[in-house]
Design goal:
Radius of gyration: 13 Å
Helix content: 55-70%
Order of helices and strands: HHH
Number of helices: 3
Strand content: under 5%
């Protein structure tokens, strides 16, 4: 049995995971452009105006 790590909503890791999932869906052509932009905006909205969180999300994305 594999144990999966549950990410708390609103954390840098959770936001980065959502952004990555959106990119994978877009690259696999599972979603159209409008859905992709809607999901990306929804993922990034909590980060806007919060410089420290924004920097942490980018740091997580750069590690992948």
């Amino acid at each position: 049995m594999t144990k999966t790590k549950t990410l708390r909503p609103g954390t840098a890791a959770a936001i980065a995971a959502q952004v990555q999932a959106n990119m994978r869906a877009w690259n696999a052509r599972e979603i159209d452009y409008q859905e992709f932009t809607r999901r990306q905006r929804a993922a990034w909205d909590p980060v806007v105006g919060r410089n420290r969180l924004h920097d942490r999300v980018l740091a997580v994305l750069n590690r992948v």
